[in-house]
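Suppose a classmate hands you a notebook page containing two proteins, each written out with its sequence and a corresponding row of structure tokens. How would you begin to make sense of it? This section walks through that situation. The first entry is reproduced here exactly as it would appear on such a page.
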Amino acid sequence: MVQFHIQPDSEIPASTQLFNQIMFAIASRQFPPGHRLPSTRALAMQTGLHRNTISKVYRQLEETGLVAAQAGSGIYVRAQSHSGPPIKSPILEQYPQAYKVVQQSLNELLNQGCSLNQARELFLAEIDWRLRSMAQVLVTVPTDDIGVGKLMVSELEQSLGIPVQLVLMEELSQILNQTPFGTVVTHRWYVREAEAIATPLGVRVIPIDIYDYAQEIQMIKGLPKNSCVGMVSISAGLLRVAEVITHSLRGDELRVMTAQLGDSYKLNAVVRNAQLIISDQASFSAVETAVRAVRDEIIRPPRLFCGQNYIGTQSIHWLKRELGLG
């Protein structure tokens, strides 16, 4: 049992002597968390102090947050935890679990042997790297598929709300040597080539997945035999893939005609012959204009379908998270 001793002839006030001794008992875990402090009556008998003086000391201890009074039970040493930071923050109010995530990550680093300063450097280094990565987002594709790069840039700027720059794969090394920071985004088909250029420079590459085109595939499956389906896109690469997929689904049952945005001759042929035209968003207005131009010359205008985004929704969510955009 802890014994408290008061020196009556000391220059240090008796209440301060008792306060410091109880603080020491708590700090040294002689009074561990959950321990009930002696009653004012018992402590008065032990120390010879007036119970009012002891009550004052207990109130001071409560103000420190080390002890807490429980009505009708007594004064108990509080279990000290890190349930929250010392000040309120709007961020914590918005993300109430955020501080727990930080705590868990920090505790894991400390358990691995990191000091607090080392853990702080790790956190700051990661945050700084992500901020620099967010500062410049580059879409890269080979020259022969620049159309799909333009499509990606358009959709990413709309979805992310930040500027996105298109850089040809053949020029990526030069650009990154001039400004070796940022995030490179590319089609999964080109990720290996992009990583070979960017990774040695400490620039990350994030591959994107495309929309699954499930609705378009169902439309193609439902077309009568000998129908003509037209496909219009800004991307020559996308048209090649679409043609191959259509053939794998229907073989020679369908006639497939394609036109890249800007090729008015082929687009005119598509709108005059196709029963169904599938277009990406970048090309759709041009398709509508071409159909209106020949409406009086054809018996039945083609059915038009504008596809959804080229980039898959999950890829957009992933990219936002990686860039710290939510």
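The notebook's second entry, a different protein, reads as follows.
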Amino acid sequence: MRDLERSVRVLLVLDDRALANTIDLTLRHGGYIRRSEETVGAARVAIAEWKPHLLLLDIDLDAGAAIQLIDDARAGGPMGIIALTRRSDLRGKLDAFERGADDYIGVPFVPDDLVARARAVLRRTHGKVGELVPRLRIGDLEIDVLNRKVLAGEHELHLTSLEQALLYLLAANAGSVLTREQILDALWGTDFVIESNVVDRHVRALRAKLQNDWHRPRYIETVPGSGYRFVPGDGTKANGPV
């Protein structure tokens, strides 16, 4: 219990499991204790009983009713609040800020941007940000969020922001098939005008950097007729810091 009280607790409220997994993996760079809820009711209980230091909230959840959780969080004492949304309209931003949100992040997001914003909000609201964990190990890959690079064995790979986001999305959902539509929505957003091969092109580019032969996939497996699945090199899911 004493360790829990000394640690930074982060509550994520989001019903998109693939995206929630991606945010959870990204937040491991903060060394936080993380908890995820999918409904407004469960989140309200968690806010009251668990008393998180930071709340990441999808304000579009439950047809927009989730934005009321900002009021609940503010009534419960000091808590950093980051609003998440897929919308780009000014009304949603203004409503979130007027209710007391500390920051606002649109989906899709860049992993290193989320890490920086979470730390900034925690610093403003609590004066503590937790330990920065620059590198995470995923199977036999090592991701360095500070330098936006990946170590694959002895090879050091530098990624673009989109390649970084794609790797986090796939790795956070290791073992699960992500459809092209899910990947498109997570990385480009719902308003993106679909190009038939945009997902495939970016997967091929990431595979090339990872030196991943699609005939014998070591990291990214093609599931015919469905999409892609991440297979960590050592057969495990995402591990902790290194």
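A careful reader of the second entry would note: The CA atoms of residues 44 and 89 lie 26 Å apart.
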